[in-house]
Amino acid sequence: MKILVTAKRVVDANVNVRVLSDNSGVDINNVKMAVNPFDEIAIEEAVRIREAGNAEEVVVASIGPTQCKEQIRTALALGADRGIFVETDADIQPLAVAKLLKALVDKENPDLIILGKQAIDGDNIQTGQMLAALAGLPQATFASEILLADGEATVTREIDGGMETITVKTPAVITADLRLNEPRYASLPNIMKAKKKSIDTYTPEELGVDVTPRLTTLKVEPPSDRQAGVIVADVEELVDKLKNEAKVI
Amino acid sequence: MALDKETLNQLLDSVSKFVDNRLKPLESQVAQEDRIPDEVVEEMKAMGLFGLTIPERYGGLGLSMADEIQVVQVLGHTSPAFRSVFGTNVGIGSQSIIIDGTEEQKNHYLPRMATGEIIGSFCLTEPDAGSDAASLKMSAVKDGDDYLLNGTKRFITNAPQANLFTVFARTNPEEKGSRGISAFLVDADTAGISVGPAYRKMGQQGAHVADVMFDDVRVPAANIVGAKENVGFKTAMKVLDRGRLHISALSVGIAERLIADSLKYAMQRKQFGQPIAEFQLIQAMLADSQTEMYAASCMVADAAKRRDAGENVAALAASCKLFATEMVGRVADRAVQIHGGAGYIEDYGIERFYRDVRLFRIYEGTSQIQQMVIARDMIRNASNIN
Question: Min CA distance, B8 vs chain A (Å)?
Fold first, then answer.
């Protein structure tokens, strides 16, 4: 079995980003970048499936500027076997990512595709779903557990109000939620070995995909500052304030 | 071999994540229990931390000195007791073999030291001999193809955990000075070896130090490092050069941690209606710590680079250790001062670092020994010119 996973390059989760003064986006100059944490969970799951003897190869893909190779290397150090890098400096939106991944699925014919449920930069939560639709594959999103058997994946999904367990035929697209696993730390010998693993590079043109943006960002603004709280005397006052001031109950 | 920048950054990133997410939350527990949890030691093995400096062909990472100090600096962001677990394998416990060992000795020990299967320990100090090699009493008397080792080694780091001791003993009793000393590789389970109870120390709980007693311990002559008698003290000095740069880098890392903690506290803690970081007297302490840390960091980087280029860095390593360890002592003292009452309270961890870093000015050569090494080097150079 072959598993395709993704490693999106995003701002490190510990960095406090600042909005650019012209409100066109956030400032990512000299900011620490990392693999999208949900992708890291997807990579970890794929590696665990292979380590359990249920897959032979884990292929990791990343799309974007040349620095994305760093994230591919990280994924290779975490245990992926081979990398695919789609190089483009264009502003890549979820539909374009899904189309590029569809092209890679056609090339690689993976038996399973695991992606992060969302990337922590755009928080769009669209790529996995779009990919499944474009590739005509079943989808199981927000997975907190994946069990594989006989050409099927039984996936526990984290949904509003509880858990849902579904079965999908493989090949399928699965998106990883936070509780699927806890990713390992890349071991230092594996980081060294990752240098020797191969990375194939393509451009969107070579894959026959038009990545022209369909959406225009009008304005990016920081969230408003949190207001200071007040200490209430008792529960009655709290209920009163929630009802009449905050008007939330 | 020096790593390319991208690989080094990944290495540092992975170690940094491990330090922040795994080790930092355990600092207080380790100090209280005087014990590093077994699963953490296993994770350190899986991370490859035991093999940082062991050459790649023996299963390690073979980091250059310049790369090693960067990794060690990141490890300095948490309690030094954690580093001590694999510190001897990276430094004094393995370097004798790496620097002067025979090919057989390297093949026999290094691959298992790189994985952490073998913990190495360095036995130089004795009850009556430390830096003064002339007083070394431990004897090694030839008996057929073997030597019989007798004597006591004191304050031996990682002795309770060690599987392999590098033991410095006098093979030539006629020679009173540093000549006449040989370095032996001795398996810890050899008959006649006993390890004393771990000492109760001022700091660095979780890292264990004990005496090791040798009573007619039979060691094959083939186990002399490099299979060469009477050159053990030279080996020890070469090992300590690298160790001194390692300790210097660790001091820089801990200083970074203490400065970060102090800055955070100073920006939050309010007195007279404003954060204490706004007060110039607090700012002076922060700035002094930052400046001294930066100076030490530059010194260590320079010495490491020069060692990698093949220069003899004995005096430079001594300068680095002298300055960096004294620096972290001052930084720790200021960190307590900036934290005020909180700095004296266990919960904040600052007093723990204050006690932990005190050791750096003492072991692997006290500050005063470093001063001697530096001054003697100066005098020697000046005499050569005239």
Answer: 9
